[in-house]
Design a protein that fits this description.
The chain is α+β, with helices and mostly antiparallel strands. It contains 4 helices and 9 strands, in the order βββαββαβαββαβ.
């Protein structure tokens, strides 16, 4: 739309503008999977419970490293040790100590079927009581994609401004203000709280009913608001 900004230029002339928005979208295939896995164990003492969890974590770390996952792509995101109580009686009763630990794992350079990630998950499923909390697909470096999306958004905004200027019988000048409302999208969730592997005999195909993980495509979107000067 056209509006008078009320701004006064150095020559005393009122600055009139056309205000438009433009959005640009670029689709690309994810190249990375983020896994959130965890273990929870109970024992009579905190030390014993934590030792059980640490043993499972050590097994998981060995699998990850054997599959070429570097230490920099493995993060401990949560570690808890707490007392578990029974409240069924007239007063609470200590029944044991709980320990839990969660790992965030990045599996980079994946193919369309995320074969590398599927292999890792299948091997991790052999660890008793593994909790597969979530799986996210993402793109490691979106810099070029956002640049292309902004170019598309700017072109769309300029086209709108030119059409409005023609309809209004005014001359379009240079942009006097550009607001970039672009933000990085959250990774796409494929599974969340979907499985807790109880026995070493459970495989990836059994846990997910024989389904395959497909990365699909992600949309990278840019949003611009532009004020164009008019004469």
């Amino acid at each position: 739309y056209i509006k008078n900004t009320g701004g006064v230029e150095s020559n005393g002339k009122i600055s009139n503008t056309i205000s438009v928005t433009g959005d640009g979208k670029i689709s690309a295939r994810p190249d990375m999977v983020q896994l959130n896995i965890g273990f929870q164990e109970k024992a009579s003492t905190s030390k014993e419970a934590l030792a059980k969890v640490n043993a499972k974590i050590d097994s998981a770390l060995k699998i990850l490293k054997d599959n070429g996952i570097p230490d920099t792509d493995i993060i401990t995101s949560n570690l808890n040790v707490y007392t578990e109580y029974d409240y069924s009686g007239s007063s609470r009763r200590v029944v044991g100590q709980q320990a839990s630990e969660t790992l965030e794992v990045k599996v980079k350079k994946i193919d369309e079927k995320a074969s590398k990630a599927v292999k890792i998950i299948d091997e991790l499923s052999a660890i008793d009581n593994l909790q597969m909390n979530s799986i996210y697909f993402d793109i490691e470096d979106k810099t070029d994609l956002f640049s292309k999306a902004r170019e598309a958004a700017f072109s769309k905004a300029k086209q709108k401004a030119e059409e409005l200027a023609k309809l209004s019988k005014v001359k379009l000048d240079k942009p006097v203000s550009i607001t970039d409302s672009t933000y990085d999208i959250a990774p796409t969730t494929r599974f969340s709280n979907v499985a807790q592997f109880k026995t070493a005999s459970v495989s990836m195909d059994e846990a997910y009913g024989g389904s395959q993980i497909s990365s699909g495509e992600m949309d990278i979107t840019a949003n611009l608001s532009i004020l164009w000067g008019i004469e």
